[in-house]
Amino acid sequence: MSDRQLITGSDTIAELVPASVAYDNHVVPLRLLAGTLVVATAEPLTTETQQRLHFILNRNVRGVIRTPEWIAIRLHELYDHQPECDDGDIGVTWYWPNWHWYDGEQLNVKCSGWESATHWSGCHEFPPDHADYDMWRWIVSLPQYHRLVNEKEIPGIRRIWHRYVAKCRPTWFCRKTTGSTLEDKS
């Protein structure tokens, strides 16, 4: 079985780690063992790198040592070429919809992420006049979004939101004008 063949459902080994993450961290995904991703690296994984990979990939990561030349060859074989990147840092942002609160009418949603080797955390503020205020009120009310939501998921969620609003428009506007919340199921 080659490393690119199926290992878990429809995922291939190369799909477990995005090319940009593999190249930035100089790791090659090898296999998935009991939910832990085993990666090859030229040096032992630092705690910071292991935590960053765990955060980005949403799984435990364990490293095994290979030569730098082996890593370079395998990265090229798995990903064909180095990802196209601009000169800026590539980062990732995660929203935590189940960690939200209201400050008056303003909705605050916890968020965190990685940029280069730096971890940050804070909150995203959605005042009532924000274009996504109603969408985020909807997101925090749904159990399927009570998980980490990658910023790259937001356009897809926005499309679902627009279909929902189009389908429920009369009910939505009645609730909005009467001051009821989305959680009210009349």
From TrEMBL:
Pfam families: MshEN
Name of the molecule in the record: Type II secretion system protein GspE N-terminal domain-containing protein
Transmembrane annotation, as ranges: none
SUPFAM superfamilies, per database record: EspE N-terminal domain-like
Annotated Type II secretion system protein GspE N-terminal domain residues: 13-82
Lineage: Bacteria, Pseudomonadati, Planctomycetota, Planctomycetia, Pirellulales
